[in-house]
Write a structure and sequence with these properties.
It is built from 14 helices and 14 strands. It is of the alpha/beta class.
């Protein structure tokens, strides 16, 4: 996506960023709604986060050994997400989901996993079929280099289709180790779960002796302090986290029930390690970020900003009569260039990507930077002001008209 292959033209090369804005190497200024793909819920270079990173840097940038900072951040995560009785830090969301699936396979002594079309769980081999995000952007259904024998262990079902998931469990009885899902899909665009979908998945996994894994790399600490599992009241067996818990630095985590996490080395035989896991700079940034997110009213204020933006966009859509729909969950938002609601990947792929590309370029010309793909989310941060949102809505209205004129 960074290459702008889906939207045309040359990619911007970022020079610096602050608050809700970034500047490219040519000096152009943009209101940023990518926010490092959702990691920067506080905006760029928040003073408290920068201070925490600088203070730790003076004490050392990496040790390859445990620190108290890991315990502090893990304690905050555990308090926020009761399902995470124990937490293990890694350096990326891909590492987190890969490790969670390995643990699920070891715990159940089964090999197969169920995932959902359009849900992106990183670039580990097990997940690169009918995935969203960059694969959707480039139109890659399955990635070359993934052994067929491994690909056969991943079963795909349409998102929001519990009957299809049930059918897979019936067809592969006692073979499925886990079902992994984005509780709010955000890599085919933002697609909320239909009522009952997540609870039915919880029941289905339990009934068949499989584990339920929530991939909250995006939704963790985004929709509320306790993530989507708290918002929906569903307890997964394992969960993965990323982006926000590092305050903009590379960090992710997986966690879950104590009996499962105790299987991870050195307590158990399931191996996982990384030189930079629990990096002190990332831990310091994460602690500073989560402390700010825990302030009373933070999420209510953030949701109000996102709601105001979405309502302004919907008003512009009504005025122009454009075949575009807006989907929002908390501070996550997507504009689907389709006249119909999007509830799964098949519907998302029907969007008019050519007109989205024209719309993206028109917004960029007006100083608003969106994700350069139809299949990604727009992220509102605490740094976006009312003036930023007003300017964005005005740019949206003008850009929409321009895009609709694209032949």
């Amino acid at each position: 996506m960074r290459a702008f292959r889906a939207v045309g033209g040359d990619p911007i090369v970022v020079d610096r960023a602050a608050g809700a804005r970034l500047w490219d190497a040519d000096g152009n200024e943009y209101i940023d709604y990518v926010c490092s793909w959702g990691a920067l819920i506080l905006g760029h270079a928040h003073s408290k986060v920068v201070e925490a990173i600088a203070a730790q840097a003076r004490r050392g940038t990496s040790y390859g050994m445990p620190t108290e900072l890991e315990v502090e951040l893990a304690a905050r995560i555990r308090a926020a997400l009761p399902s995470c009785e124990k937490v293990r830090f890694v350096s990326s969301g891909t590492e987190a989901t890969m490790s969670a699936v390995r643990l699920a396979r070891a715990a159940t002594k089964r090999d197969m996993i169920v995932k959902f079309e359009g849900c992106y769980h990183g670039h580990s081999d097990s997940f690169l079929s009918e995935a969203g995000s960059g694969l959707a952007t480039l139109g890659i259904a399955a990635c070359p280099g993934v052994p067929q024998a491994l690909a056969a262990l991943t079963l795909n079902a349409p998102y929001n289709d519990i009957a299809a998931a049930q059918k897979l469990f019936d067809q592969h009885r006692d073979q499925i180790a886990a079902v992994i899902v984005e509780p709010i899909a955000a890599n085919m665009g933002v697609v909320p779960p239909i009522p009952g979908f997540l609870q039915n998945l919880r029941d289905l996994a339990t009934r068949h002796g499989a584990l339920l894994i929530f991939d909250e790399v995006i939704t963790g600490f985004r929709v509320c302090y306790g993530g989507a599992q708290t918002a929906f009241g569903i307890a997964p067996d394992l969960a993965t986290l990323g982006k926000i818990i590092g305050g903009g630095l590379p960090v992710a985590a997986y966690g879950g029930r104590r009996d499962l996490m105790d299987r991870v080395a050195p307590l158990g035989p399931v191996y996982q390690a990384g030189t930079l896991s629990g990096n002190p700079l990332a831990m310091s940034a994460g602690i500073a970020t989560l402390d700010l997110l825990a302030a009373p009213g933070f999420y209510e204020s953030l949701d109000a900003r996102a709601k105001r933006l979405c309502e302004g966009i919907k008003a512009a859509l009504r005025e122009t009569g454009a075949s575009v729909t807006a989907a929002r969950v908390g501070s996550l938002l997507t504009l689907f260039f389709s006249g119909e609601p999007v509830r799964n990947y098949a519907a998302a792929k029907k969007c008019d990507t050519r007109r989205f590309a024209a719309f993206f370029r028109a917004m960029l010309d007006r100083g608003v930077f969106l994700a350069p793909s139809q299949f990604e989310a727009l992220f509102v941060s605490a740094a976006h002001s009312d003036a930023d949102i007003d300017r964005t809505i005005a740019a949206f209205r003008e850009s929409l008209v321009s895009a609709m004129q694209t032949s």
